[in-house]
Design a protein that fits this description.
This is Ornithine transcarbamylase, mitochondrial. The chain is of the alpha/beta class. The protein has 13 helices and nine strands. Strand 1, helix 3 and strand 2 form a beta-alpha-beta unit. The longest helix is centred in the N-terminal third of the chain and has 20 residues. The radius of gyration is 20 Å and the shape is globular.
């Protein structure tokens, strides 16, 4: 872990014989925290300031340190329940949320399309009101962002976007925690996106500039990010003094990039477009040729599941690939989201330098 922090000696711990040699973290009294997220929805990172997103990453690091490194049991969500609506199948989102919520003492309840049809057998308004009376929060992995917006409007409990056609905010939190751990800071990094102008890219565009990160995007013609999201991302870049570059040349987007990022070219619901998409994305595979024009400290991210046409084995399984720490961090970041939206907990770990 590269947070470049140290452990403070704690007299009480010494008296109790507890070990203090726990890697490179610093643990002490919680710092004054001005961020308050309790009761909020997490539908898109567009709705959160840089300081609020940093708080969620700080809390993620804190929970990971206290639970994984120190072996503490933190039943912060004891007595609370979570409704989990999944219109789309998932490995990481389901496993990280279900195990994370349970690890914090809460009870997750998994609902598939066999259990609940949003807006079909019951209106979204009615569903939101029923769930509000029986659970403390809802994480929904859906097709349409508009369904999440209606749920949030009608529910009296926090609604969390587990993925939609437009955004995937909880994935980006895991990406940023992974980069924070690796580089020690996010400020000044250049992210090179090579692939589809999809929900993952949209969430990066809504947040990267808030950390003073630059973003270079290459997509095939016809597969660019949503124009309204691009316009807002350009505004964020201007406000924060960062660079946002959109192009169609993968090598140009990779040039000087610290982090090479790609994702599936064919998302769930796009199977009929497979042949057309594979043809459009010719030349977009991330390889060592791509990495040669990147920064000397380049790393690679992919949110999984991965197909070989998106990135070859040499990059995907290289020491520069952070995909598996990135996958694990889905758990710590979603735990932090749920704790921040449902409790008044303050991190015990010293705040990282972002």
């Amino acid at each position: 872990m590269l947070f470049n922090l140290r452990i403070l000696l704690n007299k009480a711990a010494l008296r109790n014989g507890h070990s203090l040699a726990v890697r490179n973290y610093r643990c002490g009294q919680p710092l004054q925290n001005k961020v308050q997220l309790k009761g909020r929805d997490l539908l898109t990172l567009k709705n959160f300031t840089g300081e609020e997103i940093k708080y969620m990453l700080w809390l993620s690091a804190d929970l990971k340190f206290r639970i994984k490194q120190k072996g503490e049991y933190l039943p912060l969500l004891q007595g609370k329940s979570l409704g989990m609506i999944f219109e789309k199948r998932s490995t990481r989102t389901r496993l990280s949320t279900e195990t994370g919520f349970a690890l914090l003492g809460g009870h997750p309840c998994f609902l598939t399309t066999q259990d609940i049809h949003l807006g079909v057998n019951e209106s979204l308004m009615d569903t939101a009101r029923v769930l509000s009376s029986m659970t403390d929060a809802v994480l929904a992995r859906v097709y349409k962002q508009s369904d999440l917006d209606i749920l949030a409007k009608e529910a009296s409990i926090p609604i969390i976007n587990g993925l939609s056609d437009l955004y995937h905010p909880i994935q980006i939190l895991a990406d940023y925690l992974t980069l924070q751990e690796h580089y020690g800071s996010l400020k000044g990094l250049t992210l090179s996106w090579i692939g589809d102008g999809n929900n993952i890219l949209h969430s990066i565009m809504m947040s990267a500039a808030k950390f003073r990160m630059h973003l270079q995007v290459a997509t095939p013609k016809g597969y660019e990010p949503d124009p309204s999201i691009t316009k807002l991302a350009e505004q964020y870049a201007k406000e924060n003094g960062t660079k946002l570059s959109l192009m169609n040349d993968p090598l140009e987007a990779a040039r000087g990039g610290n982090v090479l990022i790609t994702d599936t070219w064919i998302s769930m619901g796009q199977e009929e477009e497979k042949k057309k998409r594979l043809q459009a994305f010719q030349g977009y595979q991330v390889t060592m040729k791509t990495a040669k024009v990147a920064a000397s400290d380049w790393t690679f991210l992919h949110c999984l599941p991965r197909k070989p046409e998106e990135v070859d084995d040499e990059v995907f399984y290289s020491p520069r690939s952070l995909v598996f720490p990135e996958a694990e961090n889905r758990k710590w970041t979603i735990m932090a989201v749920m704790v921040s939206l449902l409790t008044d907990y303050s991190p015990q770990l010293q705040k990282p330098k972002f």
